[in-house]
Amino acid sequence: MEYDCTVNVLKFGGTSVGNGARIAQVASIIVQTLQENTTPFPVVVVSAMSGVTDQLLRIARHTCLGEHEAASQEQHALRHKHIEAAETLVPESERRAELLRDLDQAFTSLAQAIVELRQAAERNQDVALPTAAVAAWGERLSIRLVAAAVREAGASAEAVREEIIVTSHPQSDPAQPFGIVVGADPLASETRANADRLIKPLVARRVVPIAPGFIGRTITGFATTLGRNGSDYSATVIGAALDCTEVTIYTDVDGVLTADPRLVSNARLLAQLSYAEAARLSWFGAKVLHPRTLIPIAPRNIPVRVRNTFRPHIRGTVVGPVGRSQSGATAITTRRKLALITVESVDMFGAPENASQVFALAAGAGAAPVAICSSSGHHLSFLVEEQAADSVIALLRHDLDNWKVCCRRGLAACACIGSGFTADPMSPARATTALAHERIPVVTQGASEQGITLIVEDRDSERALRCLHRDLIAPVIPLVRHEAPGQKKKRLEA
User: Fold this and answer.
1) Tell me, what CATH number does 117's domain have?
2) Which of 1, 56, 223, 270 is deepest in the core (most CB within 10 A)?
3) Would residue 134 count as lying in a domain?
4) Which pTM was predicted?
5) Do 342 and 459 lie in a common domain?
6) Apex CA 67: angle with CA 62 and CA 70, to 5°?
7) 357-391 residue pLDDT tens
8) 226 is in which domain, residue-wise?
C-alpha cells in the first residue's frame, strides 16, 4: 500500500511527563501539532516519568543484594506514582478502568522481570541485561499514560509496545557503573525495518504512535537500554530510520542559550546552530543536547529543534547543517574538574610518533582527552577528567621510557564557540583580553575552526564565563538613575 509517511519526531523527556498534569500538557502539544496543516504528522517518543529510571535501578540493586523488602517498597511507590497519574489523566470511569488494567498487566510483567533478575543474581550470572530489562519498564509504563492522554484530548493514539530500535549484543564490562550496558549500538537496517513495520501503518491510519525512548532489543532478542541520558539519542535514531523532516526535543528550557542562565543572567536564546557548534557545546559542558544525539541525523541533514514543553509558543533553537553566518562567538560554556597532563621527552629530539601511544594509553585508562592543548616532537599536553588523572598518569609512567609525566589539577575549560571564530584574528584576541582585564590567568589554550578553548583555574571558571560572555556576546548595560533637576542641584551644592 502506498501512502504519504512524511513525519516529524516529537521527543518528550522525563520532566515533561513527570506527573499527570504535565502529561496532559504533552497531549495538548501533540493535538495542536496534528491541527497544524503545515506540520508533518507527529511520531512521539517519550522518556520514563521523571525519577522512574533511577527508581527501577534501585529496585534492581536491592534485588541483586537480596534486599527484597526494600525492593518491594520501591515497587509499591512506583505503582502508586503511575496510578495517580492515570487517575488525573482519565476521569471517565470506564476508560480509566481500561487504563488501570493495562498498567496492572505491565506491573505484572515488571514483577516477572525482577524475579528473573533475582534468579540470575542468585546463580552468580551476569546481571547487566536482566538489569536493563527491569530499567526498560519506565518507558513502557510512560507510553501507556501518554497514549491515553492523547486519546482523552480527542486524537487517535496508540502505544508502540515493541522496541523499535534493534541493537548489537552488548559486551559485559564489570568496570561500568551498575545498570550501564556497554556496546548495545543501534543497527540501522534492522531498526529501519522495525520502524516500517511498527510506525508507518499507524501513520497511514492517522493514529499517533507513542513509542518508548531509551530502550531497544538486541539482535539476539534481549531487552536493553541505550545508556543513561540516551532518550534524545533514541529519538534521533528513530527519526533517521523514518527519514523524518525534523526531530523536536521538548524539554524544560526554551532552547540552546548563549551561556548557562544560572550563571549568566543575560544569556540569550539562539535561533539556530550548526551541527558542529552544537556538538562542541555539548562536549564542553552544555546540558541541552546529549553528545550522541546528532550522530544519526547529521549525515542526513535532518534538523533537530529544542523546545520548552511548558512554553510551547517559543519556537526554540534549530540545530542543522548550517548555523549563523558570523565569525564571532555564538556561545560560551565551561567544563569543570579537569586535569592537565603534560608528557615531555627527556631527549629534546623525542619521536613524534609517541603521541599515538600516549592517547592509546589514556584510552586504556578509560579517559578520552577532553582537549589537546599543545603538541610537538618532544612535548604533549592534554586535558582529562580530574577523576581519571591518576589512572592515566600511572599507565603513562609505567609504559613510557625516557618521558617525564606531570599533572596540574583543579582546572576548567572555557570554550568560546562559533563557526569561523578563529577566522577573525580579533575574536581570539578579545577572548584573552577579556580574561586579562579581570586578572584571570590562562594556564594554556587550544583552538580550532569552531572556537578557542581557554584553560583556567577551576575556581575562576564562573567568573571567566561571565566576563567572556559580557565581552564577546552580550555586554551588560548599566542602569542609569535619572535625577530630578532639584536633586542634582542639591547634590552639587553639597
Assistant:
1) 3.40.1160.10
2) 56
3) yes
4) 0.88
5) yes
6) 75
7) 777 877 777 788 888 887 766 778 899 999 999 99
8) 7-252
